[in-house]
Design goal:
The complex is a heterotrimer of chains A (273), B (254) and C (280).
Chain A (H helix, E strand, L loop, with lengths): L18 H24 L10 H10 L1 H35 L1 H15 L7 H8 L4 H25 L3 H9 L4 H36 L8 H10 L3 H29 L4 H8 L1
Helix pairs in contact in A: 2-10, 3-4, 3-6, 3-8, 3-10, 4-6, 5-6, 6-8, 8-10, 9-10
Chain B lengths: L4 E12 L2 E13 L4 E5 L6 H8 L7 E6 L4 H6 L3 E4 L11 H11 L4 H14 L15 H13 L5 E5 L7 H18 L2 E6 L2 H7 L2 E6 L4 E7 L14 H15 L2
Parallel strand pairs in B: 3-7, 3-8, 5-6, 6-7
Antiparallel strand pairs in B: 1-2, 1-4, 8-9
Helix pairs in contact in B: 3-4, 3-5, 4-5, 7-8
Chain C lengths: L1 H27 L22 H8 L10 H36 L1 H14 L8 H10 L4 H25 L4 H9 L4 H36 L8 H10 L5 H29 L9
Helix pairs in contact in C: 2-10, 3-4, 3-6, 3-8, 3-10, 5-6, 5-8, 6-8, 8-10, 9-10
The chains are: A mainly alpha (273), B alpha/beta (254), C mainly alpha (280).
């Protein structure tokens, strides 16, 4: 889940596969769910340990309106923080990439912050912005998103090929023009690999912040409450919604990547296979 | 026994997503012990593929291939050959000497014997002072010398080289060629050397095998009539130039 | 040198922004000028204590007549780190094992890797409350239940990066081992695993933080144990009477995270020589 939070040079191996290659995965999924269901029934596994997929699905349908509305509220927190943190990260990256003196301190600083359990600030943001205010959760998400975006975008801006830069200078291009034509395009792959990291992170940040208290009609509270009432199929159904939201957001990033940089290797190679 | 490599009507077809590619067709080639044979040809002529068939890194689709009197697989298991690639392919986490020791280690040679042998090999490639250097501290030429020392560590009768000097600058390249000839004479090793440099092939080899592509095949096999030891003077010898011309014309298909 | 100056400069800048906002708030009377809009967060000591007050709070007794706050928090950190480290070690080993299994069996990889990757896009940590109940029902001590979450969070990144790392050697290196007629286990231990180490450590550093997050979160729903999670909840409730304590607790939690990652980084330095280390 937390994936590669900091590293992420662009991943050149992101391959979508042909139908034939997908077959084992599809078989595995069906087999897993079948086995899961059979095991729960035959071994009479208690619901607290593992509810049967059928029971989860029943709740997923029966409680759909409540779960989805909770999911939507959580999604807003995640997206709000994601947008704020990403914009902040990009802006600071430009500053950090421009001045080496800032960069020397900022990169280790960012690495240190990345080592912190940022969710721990949730009680503070709740105290500052109010228990019921979604901004409390957005602030946590923004903080979690900010550093990976800043680090990767900075690296991307600095990754521009030396020959390309010399070529631009030989044309007498201005600093602004070099930024726009060479540095920003070079940063695109790095930026997108950061997005792939922080998108799942944003949902995690939102849900975990909700564990610290607040309105009851959000995913994190829903899961906690149902788990404490031993209504496990409900909790798992909410988990399913969280998973769908996570995969949905991630897919949007992949789509955006294809639209923005169809020229990049990671996109090209996955087309060919 | 006699010859160290004997190929009869060897073919290799690669199956890809877009159908079959005929990499080699009906290769007939025999190499005698002590020869220095270069394989030269345009890219895609299958010279590297042929080298890998001999080393049992690939399996022929058809034909008969005998290496050192055995099947290629058996001769690989018996460590009958050493190999060097265009990239030195040194393991970063091992020092120079530990890299040379690797094949000995995999043969379960004892520690002391391993050390002694590897030291000897590094001295032979004139890296005695760099025994404990890390690969990334060595220049490209030095890395390639370590790779050659490693390939020869088990004293194999056969040395396979896939464009080993292809990534080096011209100056380093010429001195490495000189060095390789010296080692070849000192060790009685048979060498099969893939290259696409005509002067390199002519300067090094006792025989140049010229290949063509689509499908990969041998078009000529020309002995090089230049005396040993070869050196700076060789490159100015008139016969050197005439041989260059012959090879070039063979490559053009005359 | 410049690095250190710059680092401290950034730290001071952040403190200055905090204190500056407070000063601005005091000057404006807590309202944006010309409006009735209240400044949010409120720039008073009740919500945003002075930075020096937060640090000072560390050295005052946590409870009347008790130990200092910092020693109480260090005990809580040790408690949480115990769960986190246990889960981290188990998860790391399992992840490594799965990575090796994938690289050995293409079928297993094709069948399960998509789900391992997909699981990275899913907020699995949402399962934390359920996992904690598991631990309790299974009769495990609470800190071991919490360790389960850390195991889970470590497992996936390590598995994926192990697989990537085992695949990372150049093709010619693999051919070379084949030319030596090396057995698969020899190729694994002498080529693939050493090549994978930088990748594995990258994952471990991410997982170290994640496992602490997991442990803290695991302590939340039940509010049990003596760890950082409970300390955070407790000082959260006491925020109105003494806000600096919560800030101090967050500070210590952050230091615990940095400490753990620093340990992993130290291990990395010992295992991987300088020339091969990938810049992080």
């Amino acid at each position: 889940m937390v994936g590669e939070r900091m590293t992420a040079s662009p991943d050149h191996r992101a391959g979508t596969a042909g139908v034939g290659r997908l077959a084992p995965a599809a078989v595995a999924l069906i087999a897993l769910v079948g086995l899961w269901e059979a095991a729960v029934r035959l071994l009479q596994i208690e619901a607290f340990l593992l509810p049967a997929p059928s029971a989860v699905f029943t709740e997923f349908v029966a409680d759909a309106s409540v779960i989805w509305s909770a999911g939507f509220k959580t999604l807003i927190e995640a997206v709000g923080g994601l947008v704020a943190g990403t914009i902040g990260g990009i802006l600071v990256a430009f500053v950090v990439a421009r001045w080496e003196a800032v960069r020397l301190g900022a990169m280790p600083f960012a690495a240190a912050v990345n080592a912190m359990p940022i969710v721990a600030v949730a009680p503070i943001t709740i105290a500052l912005f109010g228990l019921t205010n979604p901004v409390s959760r957005m602030a946590v998400v923004a903080l979690m998103v900010f550093f990976p975006v800043m680090i990767n975008t900075t690296r991307g801006l600095l990754s521009a090929d030396a020959n390309e830069l010399e070529l631009m200078r030989s044309y007498g291009a201005s600093g602004w023009s070099i930024l726009r034509r060479v540095r920003i395009p070079s940063a695109h792959p790095y930026f997108f690999s950061a997005l792939k990291i922080v998108v799942p992170l944003s949902l995690i940040g939102a849900i975990v912040s909700e564990y610290f208290g607040g309105p009851q009609d959000v995913l994190g509270q829903y899961i906690t409450n149902r788990a404490q009432l031993f209504q496990f199929p409900d909790a798992w159904a909410a988990m399913l919604v969280a998973a769908i939201l996570g995969i949905g957001m991630y897919s949007l990033v992949l789509l955006a990547e294809r639209l923005v940089m169809p020229w990049h290797v990671s996109v090209r190679t996955s087309d060919q296979r | 026994m006699g010859e160290i490599v004997a190929a009869r009507r060897v073919s290799k077809v690669f199956k890809t997503g877009k159908g079959a590619v005929e990499a080699l067709r009906d290769i007939d080639l025999t190499i005698d012990p002590g020869e220095f044979v270069s394989l030269i040809g345009p890219s895609g002529c299958g010279k590297s593929t042929l080298l890998r068939l001999v080393g049992d890194l690939l399996t022929p689709t058809a034909g008969e291939l005998v290496v050192n009197g055995k099947t290629p697989a058996q001769s690989r298991l018996d460590h009958d050959y050493g190999i060097a690639f265009q990239k030195a392919t040194l393991l970063d986490w091992r020092t120079a000497i530990e890299n040379v020791e690797l094949p000995l280690e995999l043969m379960n040679v004892g520690r002391d014997q391993r050390r002694a042998r590897a030291t000897e090999m590094l001295e032979m490639v004139e890296l005695g002072e760099f025994v404990n250097a890390n690969p990334w501290q060595l220049s490209g030429g030095m890395q390639q010398r370590v790779a050659i020392a490693r390939a020869l560590a088990l004293r194999p009768p056969l040395l396979l080289m896939d464009e080993p000097f292809g990534a080096l600058d011209e100056m380093t390249r010429e001195s490495m060629q000189q060095e390789l000839l010296r080692i070849w004479r000192e060790t009685d090793t048979t060498i099969i050397f893939v290259t696409h440099s005509i002067p390199e092939a002519v300067f090094l080899s006792t025989r140049v095998v010229v290949m063509a592509s689509r499908p990969g095949r041998i078009v000529d096999s020309m002995p090089v009539d230049l005396s040993h030891p070869r050196g700076v003077d060789t490159r100015e010898d008139e016969r050197f130039y005439t041989t260059l011309t012959e090879v070039r014309e063979a490559l053009r298909g005359r | 040198m410049l690095r250190v100056v710059s680092f401290i400069g950034i730290l001071l800048l952040l403190v200055a922004i905090w204190e500056g906002y407070k000063l601005l708030g005091a000057a404006l009377g807590g309202q944006w000028p010309g409006t009735e809009i209240e400044m949010k967060p409120r720039p008073d000591n009740q919500n945003m204590p002075h930075v020096w007050d937060m640090v000072a709070a560390l050295f005052q007794p946590a409870r009347r007549g008790g130990d200092s706050l910092i020693s109480a928090l260090l005990v809580a950190s040790a408690y949480t780190l115990r769960s986190a480290v246990l889960g981290f070690v188990i998860g790391g080993l399992l992840g490594f094992g799965l990575g090796v299994a994938f690289v050995r069996s293409e079928m297993a990889e094709r069948a399960f890797l998509p789900y391992v990757v997909a699981s990275q896009t899913i907020p699995i940590i949402a399962l934390a409350p359920i996992v904690v109940v598991w631990g309790g029902r299974l009769g495990l001590p609470s800190w071991m239940g919490v360790a389960l979450i850390s195991t889970y969070l470590t497992f996936f990144p390590v598995a994926i990066n192990t697989l990537r790392g085992l695949r990372s050697p150049e093709w010619t290196a693999t051919e070379m081992f084949r030319s030596y007629a090396a057995r698969p286990t020899e190729t694994l231990w002498k080529l693939q695993v050493p090549a994978a180490l930088p990748y594995i450590f990258t994952a471990l550093k991410v997982s170290a933080t994640a496992s602490i997050v997991g442990a803290i979160v695991g302590e939340l729903p039940s509010g049990f144990g003596e760890g950082l999670g409970r300390a955070l909840l407790q000082f959260n409730q006491a925020f109105t009477s003494d806000p600096s304590k919560l800030y101090a607790a967050v500070l210590v939690a952050s230091v615990a995270g940095i400490f753990f990652v620093a340990l992993v980084t130290l291990a990395e330095w010992l295992v991987i020589p300088a020339g091969r280390r990938v810049e992080n």
